[in-house]
Amino acid sequence: MKNQGKSLFVVVLTLGFLAGGAVCSLGDEEIDLGGNTSVAPAPTVAPKPAPTVAPASPVTTPTPASQEIEMEDENQVSNEAAPQPTPTVFEVHGREKMKDIYEAGIKYYKDNDYDMAIRYLSNAVKKDDPYTPKFYYAEAYAMLGVIYQYHVIHYGRAYRCYAEALKYEKSNSTARRHIKQVYKYRKRKD
After folding, report:
1. Domains of the chain with bracketed CATH
2. Among 24, 52, 56, which residue's Cα sits nearest to residue 40?
3. What is the mean pLDDT of residues 168-187?
4. pTM of the entire structure?
5. How far apart are the C-alpha atoms of 40 and 33, rounded to whole Å?
6. Are 162 and 185 in contact (CB under 8 A)?
């Protein structure tokens, strides 16, 4: 295509010289050819429309039954060649948030994995995050108290967790309700 454009330009240029014109125009571009000052109408070249190509129909060649190859559609993906999904990693802009750790602990609590719930909730209350409301600290301590009271059966730890929850939030209903229950048993199990 580039060669055709160059040869067309040369032909138009040559015609301009033969016609005696001083200016040759090719599309929107004018070229001063020098020489005499009379201007002859320059030949114009109309652009040709781009050829359209009809989509090729698939050609199938018969193959012997012993060498039959399974053809796949372009939209299908082979199970063998499919890449394995990678786990999504969430970046918290360089700082781990207390609320995120608390929510992970609550998720483990709901899944009845109390060891992991204790681990995450304990880490959550140790995290010093000035942007997290004190409510979450109180709730984390209250949930630790519930786990120690009902699932681990350690009343002393449950009492201490409820007391810490009440330090963060005096009106925490979970801690207020359950601290009365473990108060009388806390000395026996320590």
Report:
1. 1-46 (no CATH), 98-189 (1.25.40.10)
2. 24
3. 87
4. 0.50
5. 12
6. no
